[in-house]
Amino acid sequence: MITTLHIKNIGIIDDLIIDLNKGLNVLTGETGGGKTVIVSSLGIFAVGRF
Asked: Which pTM does this prediction carry?
């Protein structure tokens, strides 16, 4: 299970650390806030290429 996600220099995100807890984790925010970048980073992790 992924417990921490560290994203650096991808899209509009300079440096971000997200601690994920057991159960449901929800991403909310304004349009253009970077939610898709976070989900895409998980995809990059899963597939192994950018």
From this structure: 0.70
